[in-house]
Amino acid sequence: MLFNRVVDSAITIIMVVSLVFVAMRILPGDPAVAALGEYATPEQLAAFRARMGLDAPLWLQYLTFLRDIVTLNFGTSMITGESIAAMLLANLPYTVELTVAAMLVGMIIGVPMGVLSATRRGSAADYSARVIALAGFCVPDFFLGALILIIFGLKLDLFPVMGGGVGFADRMEHLVLPALTLGLVMAAFTSRLTRSALLEVLRRDYIRTARAKGVDEHWVIYKHALRNALIPVVTGFGIYILTMLSGSIAIELIFARPGVGSVLINGINSRDYPMVQAGLLVFALFVVLVNIAMDLIYVLIDPRLRRVSK
Amino acid sequence: MIAGNESIAVEAPEQTRADRLGAWSILVRNPITVACLFVIGAFFLMAIFAPWIAPRDPVKQNYLAMSQGPSAQYWFGTDRYGRDILSRTIYGARPSLALGVLAPLLAGVAGTIIGMLAGYFGGWVDRVVSRISDVLMAFPSLLLGIMISAALGPGFTNLIVAISFAFLPRFIRVARASTMSIMAEPYIDASVASGQTWFRILRKQILPNISGPLIVVATLWVATAIRIEASLSFLGLGTQPPAASWGNIIRDGLTEMLVNPSAVIAAGFVVTLCVLAFNMVGDAVRDVLDPESRD
User: What range(s) does the ABC transmembrane type-1 domain occupy (chain B) (predicted)?
Assistant: First the structure.
């Protein structure tokens, strides 16, 4: 079974990596023109193609591309000449800490809000929780970030608003506002999901049985219902992580934070072709790895899946 | 809600024209839905008649009126090039709504065709299509949109391609699943036995029966399309300045947010309102056409 999954994941990784190749080389839009601008001379374009290996036949480019990925050779930035692999490695921790912190904030706010909303269905608390959840979907994360930056960073001057910080304490301080922004978006999803899952579970027979036996209502909700209701919340983790990851790109821009997203956006803005390609690869691999990890976690937490796949 | 959308699976209810007309009357019974429909109507009017409504040229720079706060002359103030934010916000409705309608429409048409073919023929066609759409489904649509526009480069056409492609797997999945459930119906066997071509069966028998869930999916994705357009324009990947879009107004406004936050607040509020209205209507349409998915 494990062997099958490994083969499956390998196929998926090759597919995703190939999609990035297709997107960068075969889709309309000449990378040489994109990098050098419309007014580049034919000689400049030819020199660029030779330097990037874009004049080789496609199959050879593809093989070189795969070899470079396996050896983690992402080339050097066309602008600064720095090693892209080193740059990504330096930026990765900032994106990871933001994503993890946002997940935590989202769970801490979202789950209790969902529980409150489901257990007091139709009350003012339920109503406001649902309005907040709806707002969390409708307010674009970058607008929310800008508002939080204006209010907490500039008007109240409570937290630093620029950069990623140096040293642990400073870094955590710089993390507060970006994590709060993404965390609020995440809390909206979590509370919505917790609410509907809990309502669903509270309708089940075993809850009625527990209540009929005279079990304390708090015990029914927290011990019997919430545990089961949290299964869809936990299994949704993969989607959340990736949603937070895509949100982090805009948040990094607002708070001028370092991170993989800002590497990608800088690459696009400065038409740094190898940097864009490397940035895309990192995000693509992130998605694949999170999904593989989630697949494994499902199998670990749900014994039924183990039996089926045998 | 994104999380909800990512995993949408709508079963195919039998839909007739009368059913759908009935659905419309249920839809307009809810005052909130009606209010949202009015808001959407107002946004469309604003986009279409922007040149007549906007008090000034949205791209004209005025160095005598740079970075001004709100005033009687400039309701939402001006940006650092002296452009009128109110006019830019009004014109910003154009790319947002065009994309909000076009991206789900294109993705819907292409996804329906691909999904129906996969569901009808099965075999290796289905395996290849399902495999590719499964892999693409793993990407949040915003991330996929960012990645594709990063590869294609900025611009409106590329933006439509990027967002439509980001939505494509969702439509393929629904069209495929609905087609497969219809394929089990005896009338399909009858059509095959009577010698009808596959093209005719797909067009006459299957398409009318799977259109309900696909309409639901399409309306649910309009709000997301508008939000993604704003995000991509904010990141500098979407609508390119000097042309106005809500996302790039916020991006431009960031640099002078300290002295003049009116641009960020105005454009941000308008995107929020627009997404909210489309989202409420999308949810209402889903509740009417597919009541089981309600919470």
Answer: 93-282
Q: H/E element holding A81? A: none
Residue B85 has pLDDT above 60, yes or no: yes
- Which has the closest alpha carbon to A173: A164, A184, A183? A164
pLDDT in tens, B126-155: 988 988 888 888 888 899 888 888 888 778
Give the closest of A15, A240, A283 to B147, CB-based: A283
Q: Residues with Cβ < 8 Å from A121, sequence gap 6 or more?
A: A199
Residue-wise pLDDT tens digits, B155-183 = 888 889 989 999 999 999 999 998 998 88
Distance CA A186, CA A114 (A): 12
C-alpha to C-alpha distance for B61 and A20, rounded to whole angstroms: 39
Superfamily name with CATH number, domain B74-280 = MetI-like (1.10.3720.10)
Domain parsing of chain A, residue ranges: 93-309
Name the residue ranges covered by the structural domains of chain B.
Answer: 74-280
CA atoms within 13 A on the CB side of A174: 21
B140·A243 Cβ contact <8 A: yes
pLDDT at B136: 84
| A86 min Cα distance to partner chain B (Å) | 21
End-to-end CA distance of chain A: 7
Give the span between the Cα atoms of A247 and A189, in whole angstroms: 13
Superfamily holding A93-309: MetI-like (1.10.3720.10)
* ipTM metric: 0.84
A142–B231: do the CB atoms touch at under 8 Å?
Answer: yes
Low-confidence stretches of chain A (pLDDT < 70) are: 1-2, 26-31, 34-35, 301-310
Q: How far is B288 from chain A (nearest CA, A)?
A: 18
